[in-house]
Protein: Alpha/beta hydrolase
Organism: Croceicoccus ponticola
Amino acid sequence: MRSEQQIQYQYPQGHQPGEETVKTVKDRIDPELVPAYPEKSAEVFALITKDIGAARAAGRERLDDVKSGQYPFGGTTELRTVPGLDADPEVPIVIYRDPKAVSPESVLVWLHGGGYVLGSAHDPWAFRYTPLMTVVSVEYRLAPEHRSPSAPRDACAVLEWLAANASELGLDRSRIVIGGPSGGGGVAAGAALLNRDRGGPPLRYQLLIYPMIDDTHETESGRLDLPPGLWTREVSLDAWSVYTEETGTSRYAAAARAENVQGLPPAYIMTGDLDLFRDECIQYASRLMAAGVPVDLAVFPGAPHGFDLLAPDAAVSRRAIDHQLNALRQVLI
C-alpha cells in the first residue's frame, strides 16, 4: 500500500506529457482553509493527556476567537436540567428557540465537538441550525473525568426526557434529530445505538459531522501525514485513551465497533477528504446502507477535520454548510 506522500496527481492544465506532480497533505489543503489551522493548535492538543484543565482553557480561548459572531442568534435561551438515566446525575441542557424557525416543533439534540475531552453545551455552532428547528444542546460528561458510556447515556437521558415531555415543551416527539461534529458526532452515533438497544423514542435522523467513531484509525486516511495544527492520529489516539471504557471499547464509545447497525435512524454523514476520520466515516456509511438505513454521504475536497466550523466563510465550507442544512430541510418537510 502506498503512503500518502507517494500518491501522484496529474493536472490537465499546463501539464506536459510524462510530467507528474506529487502533493503532500499540506499542499492539498484548500488555500482558503489554511489560516484556520495554525501550528499553535498543536500545543493545545498536546495538553489533552498532560493537563486537561490547561487544554480546556486554551481551547476556549482559541475557539472563542473562531466562533465570535459566526451565527447571530435573536431567539430565546433556556437553561434546564433533566434526570439522568437510572442512577446517573442530572444532565444540564441549553434550549435555543427561534420563533421564526422553519419547523419550531422539530428538535435537534446537539452534542458539541471537542474530541470527548473539550467543549461545552454553550456552543455558538449550534446556532447554525436554529433557523430550521429548536436546538437542545447537551452538557454531556467529558473525559478523562468520565469515561464512556457516560456521554452517550447523558444524550439518551435527554432523548427520553424530550419524548416524555414533548407536549409541554411544544415539540413533536416524532421529529427528534440527534447530531454533532467530531467527538459530538461520535457521542450522537453511540447514543443512537444505545437508544435503539434501550427501546428509546424513535429518532427522525442522525446528523453526523465528521464523527469520531473508530478508536483504532487503522485506515488509509487514519495514517495520513497530517501537519501540526490539525487533528492528527497521535492526538486522536491520546483522546481515545482517556475516553473509552477501561474494560474494553464498547460500540457506544466507538460506533464503528457495532456488529449490528440495523434499526438505526437515517443518517447524514459528512467529512473532508483530508480528514483523519474520512475512511471510517465512509465505511460506517456503507455499513448503514447495507443494513437498509438511508444515508446521505458527503465528502468535500481539500478539507481537513473541522473545516466548516473553523473557516465557515471559505467556499468549500459554504457548500458543506448548505448541504447539511438542505439535508435537514428535507427531513423536516
